[in-house]
Amino acid sequence: MSNVNKTTSAKDKNLVARDAEYLWHPYTQHKTAALPIAIKRGEGALLWDEDDKQYIDAIASWWVNPFGHSNTFIADAIYKQLTTLEHVLFGGFTHEPAVLVAEKLKEILPQNQQKFFFSDNGSTAVEIALKVALQYNYNKGEKRTKIIAFENAFHGDTFAAMAASGISFFTEAFRGSLIEVTRIPVPVAEQEETSIEALKQLAETDEYAAFIFEPLVQGAAGMVMYTPEALNDLIDICKQNNIFTIADEVMTGFGKTGKNFACDYLTTQPDMMCLSKALTGGTIPMALTTFTQELFDGFYDDDVNKALFHGHTFTANPTGCAAALASIALLQQPEMQENIQRINQQHLAFKTKIEAHPKVKTTRVLGVIFALELKTDGEESYYGGLRNKLYNYFIEKGVILRPVGNIIYILPPYIISDELLNTIYNTIESAINAIV
Q1: Bind-site residues for pyridoxal 5'-phosphate
Q2: If DSSP states are collapsed to H, E and C, what string results for the chain?
Q3: Which residues take part in binding substrate (predicted)?
Q4: Which domains does the chain have, with CATH numbers?
């Protein structure tokens, strides 16, 4: 009888109260954080909570929903796949959806990308790339055990990905347990030569297996942007010194920068690319790490011990592959490409308007990404007071934005209307006036 009463009692509680009993949320100090918002449904660029309050998803739910919530085109593809083959192990087996994803990506990725390894998320995509770089040299009997990365990078939360990340409070507890990574300055305006010289000095030591970077935009650092020309120079240095290059396109991939991939702006292409987030349109967790033929050949041997012993239970899940194929098809539609350009033009117009605001320090735009940095008296911490005040203000106004310290950014679904974009812009402007 008591069990029945407990069940009934649980059902009487709202979703947030039930969540608080059991769930541990990401990047959350539960003792001090506000309770989460319970979302019950989404459509397009909008979400609704359990009290029917409407929110504009101005960051595409951590950059994964470029085609909007509850997209019926992707949902239909998933349903069709579920009625045919929902999953089969990928060790010793294959299936058409996985082959089709590889064939489709081969058409739109830089042409040096020849081999494709499936995993589950952005962190694992990076983990695989770093393991491949290290083991490639091990297989050849060469001792290159270090990695180069940018300052303030973010590449994920698994151990190698975490080691390559430069946001210290994410990794401080694990110092001493990580692979060795040396950081160089990001080649932002007027820092290009400093970055290049730092890389040259490291490259000459023959100790480094790979250089990993977020191409053109450092997302978690606050949408920090730098030029393709600077990145071309860095990649060239690595190629001259037999250091593999890894483009972490988990955030930038699939249209965010105005092109299919940020690497499409480059003249010198990386050896590896990491893809996830928008790969399946925000529906099913899936990731890919892509490689040149040279990297694959470094594991192709009569010696079984030189194989890449890495895998995931849901590697190349057919349902996820169906979602990926539908997402890529949507991305390639002329209407979607026009949406990306439309959002870019709207961002540029807002940039022109807001950059003269006395409380705005800098603004920047690339593709559908907009960011502004606010003037402050001192350095603002990642989850500091100003950030929290801004976040709470936006939530109160029904706009989902997650400022990074004193940086506010927008990265909306491509299907967002001009009307909703203007609401976001106006809310940001009113927040600056009210809080800063």
Answers
A1: 122-123, 248, 312-313
A2: CHHHHHHHHHHHCCHHHHHHHHCCCCCCCCCCCCCCCCEEEEEECEEEECCCCEEEECCHHHHCCCCCECCHHHHHHHHHHHCCCCCCCCCCCCCHHHHHHHHHHHHHCCCCCCEEEEECCHHHHHHHHHHHHHHHHHHCCCCCCEEEEECCCCCCCCHHHHHHCCCHHHHHHHCCCCCCEEEECCCCCCCHHHHHHHHHHHHCCCCEEEEEECCCEECCCCCEECCHHHHHHHHHHHHHCCCEEEEECCCCCCCCCCCCCHHHHCCCCCCEEEECHHHHCCCCCCEEEEECHHHHHCCCCCCHHHCCCCCCCCCCCHHHHHHHHHHHHHHHCHHHHHHHHHHHHHHHHHHHHHCCCCCEEEEEEECCEEEEEECCCCCCCCCCHHHHHHHHHHHHCCEECCCECCEEEECCCCCCCHHHHHHHHHHHHHHHHHHC
A3: 62, 277, 311, 402
A4: 37-70+334-435 (3.90.1150.10), 73-331 (3.40.640.10)
